[in-house]
Amino acid sequence: MRYSTPYNFPTIEFEAARIAELLKWLKEHAELQMNFLTDITGIHYPDQKGKEIGVVYHVHGLAHNIRLRIKCFLPAENPAIDSATTVYSGANWMERETYDFFGVQFQGHPNLKRILNVDEMDYFPLRKEYPLEDG
Could you tell me the CATH number of the domain that includes residue 6? Predict the structure, then answer.
């Protein structure tokens, strides 16, 4: 685990295989009480071999106004991570959007399918994998 504070925002880089465990611990922790999932998104780093796809979680402890960013990295050939829906029901559409645009497979998600793009789309539009039309 790595910790940093870019832009004065507490951030940890955590192992993807244990993300659901971490989120559950943060939510149930008596002092932290990270009971609100603000956002889940993705990012594509095509030059980071084996860590091309990032999944970024923003959680908020409303009782003490504590915020935390959590980053996990996945290989582009198998971008799979456990679903946060078992901890935060609000993760449902956030994960669907991240799947839709980055191709992240959220294991255990109750209805992982495209949410904004057409089902027939055979690529993930926010990955940096295809040439730009005007390039």
Answer: 3.30.460.80
